[in-house]
Amino acid sequence: KGLSLPLVHAKIACMALTKHVASMRLALAPRFALLLLVLVGFGVRVWRLDAQSLWYDEGFSVWLASQSLAEITARTAADIHPPAYYYLLHFWLVPFGNSEFALRFFSLVPSLITIPLTFLVARRLFDQTTGLLAALLATLSPMNLWYAQEARMYALVTLLGLLSAYLFLRWLERPTWRWWILLTFVNTLAVYTHFFA
After folding, report:
1. What is the reported pTM?
2. Burial grade of 66 (CB within 10 A; 0-12, 13-18, 19 or more)
3. What is the mean pLDDT of residues 167-192?
4. How far apart are CA 109 and CA 89, in angstroms?
5. DSSP line for 48-104
6. Looking at per-residue confidence, does 19 or 114 come out higher?
7. What gap in Å lies between CA 187 and CA 18, rounded to an integer?
8. Residue among 150, 115, 146, 110 nearest 133 (CA)
9. DSSP 153
10. CA dist 163 → 31, 116, 138 (Å)
């Protein structure tokens, strides 16, 4: 009462700015929490990544991925696992080599991507809090940690299965050809990674 018009406008602007900053904090808090989970996830996955030597199945992965693409195709036709993982590992070996650390890091990457993707799927199905809780469970899950440190296809097929669920949810919300094509591609890659997909 008795304030000049410019002071009233300034006060309204300050109140709006304060409200905007508070809403930005609320919006940034889950992103910060998710980033923190990914960093923790990276730390627990990379810790002692090369502490053990390769076991038989991992050695087979390296040996098969070291072959030509035609040889990989021929040998997986007689194996119980399809060739997509071995193809991808084949191209990974070129720049990164075949040390235990490099080989297992190839599994660490999809396992790490699984954390924010778990958040997205759970948030879409439920809410943001559930998404963060699900991401926390994905971060610390002993099974996820185990397969993140193994030079086999299980971390990759987990990521592809989760990505398939996410794309399916997006397609249900907005059934366009784009989502359907992406879903079909991911599902095909998943089946060519592991038959359980």
Report:
1. 0.84
2. middle
3. 96
4. 12
5. TTTSS---HHHHHHHHHHTS-HHHHHHHHHTSSS-SHHHHHHHHHHHHH-SSHHHHH
6. 114
7. 46
8. 115
9. S
10. 20, 11, 14
Q: What is the DSSP string of 86-150?
A: HHHHHHHHHHH-SSHHHHHHHHHHHHHHHHHHHHHHHHHHS-HHHHHHHHHHHHH-HHHHHHHTS
Instruction: Return d(Cα 116, Cα 65) in angstroms, integer.
Output: 29
pLDDT number for residue 91: 97
Total count of residues recorded for the chain? 197
CB-based contacts of 71, cutoff 8 Å, min separation 6 = none
- 108 C-beta neighbours (distance < 10 Å), count: 21
Give the pLDDT band of residue 134 (cuts 50, 70, 90).
Answer: very high
Quick one: pLDDT at residue 15?
67
Encode 157-182: b = buried (16+ Cβ within 10 Å), e = exposed: bbbbbbbbbbbbebbeeeeeeebeeb
Q: Which structure tokens are listed for 32?
A: 């910060």
Question: What is d(CA 63, CA 79) in angstroms, rounded to the nearest whole number?
Answer: 14
Residue identified by tokens 């002071």 is 7
